[in-house]
Amino acid sequence: MKVGIMGGGQLARMLALAGHRLGVHCLALDPQPDACAAPVAQHIIAAYDDRNALTRLSQASDCVTFEFENVPHGSLQFVAAQAAVYPPLSALAAAQDRLHEKNLFRALGIPTPPFIAVDNCASLAQAVAEIGLPAVLKRRTQGYDGKGQIVLRAASEIEAAWLRLGAVPMIVERFVPFERELSLVVVRGRDLETAFYPLTENLHHDGILRVSWSRPGDALQEFAEDYVRRLLDELKYVGVMAVEFFQVSGGLLANEFAPRVHNSGHWTIEGAETCQFENHMRAILGLPLGSTASVGCAAMVNFIGTLPEIGQVLAIPQTHLHIYGKEAYPGRKLGHVTLWTHDRRALPTRLNQLRALKGGDRARAFRALIS
Amino acid sequence: MKVGIMGGGQLARMLALAGHRLGVHCLALDPQPDACAAPVAQHIIAAYDDRNALTRLSQASDCVTFEFENVPHGSLQFVAAQAAVYPPLSALAAAQDRLHEKNLFRALGIPTPPFIAVDNCASLAQAVAEIGLPAVLKRRTQGYDGKGQIVLRAASEIEAAWLRLGAVPMIVERFVPFERELSLVVVRGRDLETAFYPLTENLHHDGILRVSWSRPGDALQEFAEDYVRRLLDELKYVGVMAVEFFQVSGGLLANEFAPRVHNSGHWTIEGAETCQFENHMRAILGLPLGSTASVGCAAMVNFIGTLPEIGQVLAIPQTHLHIYGKEAYPGRKLGHVTLWTHDRRALPTRLNQLRALKGGDRARAFRALIS
To answer: Is the ipTM reported for this complex over the cut 0.90?
Structure first.
């Protein structure tokens, strides 16, 4: 079996590694000659809208998937005319536009922070007056890892923010003083078999995910599953999806969803019976899903911008390293480590050991988890 | 980092997959254009004694290892003049010659079944008279998966067996009516840090391993570790090694050792904190070892000659599939499945479900495990 992937980054790489175990070869279309999935997949070096390349990908694959939201929608439509595409294009379309996404949550009765669509600077000022400060201004499209958004703390900042984000259609949301950031990773098969992973607690810094840890048995699991199930049904979803929530006053507000495998599910490689990557492959190929039950306790720490010396990381007991083989530059996700234990009480010690390694931003990110 | 591997079969494939997680690229030298490691490693298609290819492998690699015992010793000596080779060549030399191997066990005080070296048909007849029947006649070299050996049940079979095995130097051993077949997989780092996996119980049929299952806490663990430690010390060993034992009257007799990752250690991918493949990579690269502690209970079943329909396999709860991407022919190892549970009592049910799938030889192999 062959699976085509739009994108050749670390998510495609980990999908391809999971695929090999199942006897599935991946093809990854990515314009970067050094795409990090290339050593484990057949790499088609081409622009995302190169129709010849898209045809090659479609014709060689039993089905096609994608590893990032910003795949040109037209390209996927072109592929979908020639091959099965999972998750469905409707999910991608919703995730590509924050207004569409938030309206979908609202229509499904999934609570969100209050938001208003804004199309010019005057409507932004009016929306901020309505919503209150602080507020978060977000471009409707092309945002990831905190890019394309600005926190507004004073009315005087509105115009500069509007211009800085490109004076394009945006939404403005109330800034939510959340208790926790949680995400729920779910997988649904072609036959609608559905399996939820335990909730994940996440810690972001500068808009980039830093640390995730599994929360099996969390009191909010059922609430989250109920919301996510509405989304799956509405979108006729197939594959892995991640939905990010803010916990506020003991309830959940949906922030966004990703129609793909997700950084906050990386801990499942060691911490769940079947990881998100294998389950995505199983789902889109029409194979039975694997158990999403957690095994032990896992915490995942991203390496952003720089990599520590790997011998030092591996010297910490129960660390599991994942290096993506990418060239380093600031803000780039270069790898992650999963700390895995039988006993959650051992995690803070391990995290402290990891924190002691070079890399200041990690130290900050760990504080909340350790305290 | 780069690791060169002599051989491009499923062991090289699983080493390469483990390597990618650590950011390590493998190069696999294998004369077969369709070597199953090729999709996940840089494949050097060349004969094992092609000196230009061996030089390319050596110069491109931080260190070189091997995935099978029958690598030409001269080739590895040639490589060792240009690159670090682990495990040491002395271990390979011992494992390549059953007489050398058995003499080594004897010299180290590791019990073995009684054996005698034989160089011609007359000395074989004499040895059989001394050792008694049934006995096992084995070529000293080039044996694997039960090839190169014959069980002698009557004196009248001696001459035919001698000729059938090629009238080359052999050993004849007493046939041991063992209670269990066990193997111990161990890893030792360049700094001599040593970690033992729990004992594995194995079931062979027609000389090929069929089923392995982990035996954490087995009463014989310490005995086995004591014997294996002597071997590691004598050979100044680095890397993963597997030693196969027969359990007889509650004690252990060493059968053979493999200076490499081993089929009876495949269950460690799911059933141990760090699998044998990753630990071999860590060891030979001078990195700290990972924990070899078991996680839950695991049983591994080989797919020999034919593959079942993979959807049927994955429909059995808690199965983990490993397909090697090899062309099918009788007696060939094409893949394996690990059954993993929290609770050993669930294993027989899972095995029965697997047994019910097409493939008669598997049914036979499971009987002992299930009963």
So the answer is: yes
